[in-house]
Amino acid sequence: MSGPLLRLEGLEKTYSRGLLRRQVTFRLKAELDLAGRQIVGVVGPNGAGKTTLFEMMTGSNQPSAGRVLIAGRDIHRVKYRERDRLAVHYHQSYQVRRFTRRLPSFLLEPAGETYPLVHLFDEPQFNTQDGYIGFMLDFFRRLRSEGRLVVVCLHPTARYHLQILREVCEAFLFVSGGGVTRHADFAALLGDPRVRQYLGSDMTKQAETLA
Fold first, then answer.
1. Among 23, 63, 94, 152, which is least packed by CB within 10 angstroms?
2. d(CA 65, CA 62)
3. Cα–Cα distance between 141 and 161 in angstroms, integer?
4. Is residue 30 within 8 Å of 11, Cβ to Cβ?
């Protein structure tokens, strides 16, 4: 196909509270194009909206505005049981399949695919023994070689998390402050002062030895 595999078009999610006077408690906006055949790393503070972003990408969380297009199809207009043929969300090694059903499925479109085009790994648990990390990295690379888009979200708390991001990711997204910022490579990611603040001095120093 021509054009990006994944497009976030004016995407926004807002949560608010209050009966008479609504007060916004959370807002996330994203405008983004990602091609297939690549591995993208995602980092950001807890509560910034990384999982919410993944849920909107896979159709399990209805955006307040905008669209998620995968291979040109609006995933929120695709039949519920077929959405994971476009994008699949693994949260700590488990696939997430919860959908808010706003329309009867017969009013929605078929996915037109048989195997997920976009694979979203949300803080996967890497066992540091018995070659498990190497197995997972090989799996990510195999998906990429098949033309898939692989997105890996990690919250770096150890040096090996940084090593994983540095070794396999070709681009990065930083989710913070209600938005999503794209960085071309690991060095550019570390050049963002907000990322350095998020990592803290110790993890930043360790990351600099890898850049």
1. 23
2. 9
3. 17
4. yes
Residue 2 one-letter amino acid: S
Q: Are 42 and 151 in contact (CB under 8 A)?
A: yes
* pLDDT of 99: 63
Looking up tokens 């990611």 gives 189
What ranges make up the beta strands (E) of the chain?
6-17, 23-34, 38-43, 65-70, 73-74, 87-91, 94-95, 118-122, 149-153, 171-176, 179-183
Distance, first Cα to last Cα, the chain: 34
Query: How far is the C-alpha of 13 from the C-alpha of 26, rounded, in Å?
Result: 8
Beta bridge partners of 77: none
66 half-sphere exposure, CB direction, 13 A CA radius = 21
| Long-range contacts, 124-132 (Cβ 8 Å, 24+) | 124/90, 124/92, 124/93, 124/152, 124/154, 125/92, 125/93, 126/160, 126/161, 126/164, 128/160
Burial track 159-168 (b if 16+ CB lie within 10 A, e otherwise): eebbebbbeb
The pTM for the full model equals: 0.91
Closest to 86 (Cα-Cα) out of 70, 97, 100, 106: 70
Q: SS3 for 137?
A: helix
pLDDT, averaged per 10 consecutive residues of the chain (211 residues), comes to: 87 91 93 97 96 95 96 95 94 66 78 93 85 92 97 95 96 97 97 97 96 81
Domains of the chain: 6-208 (3.40.50.300)
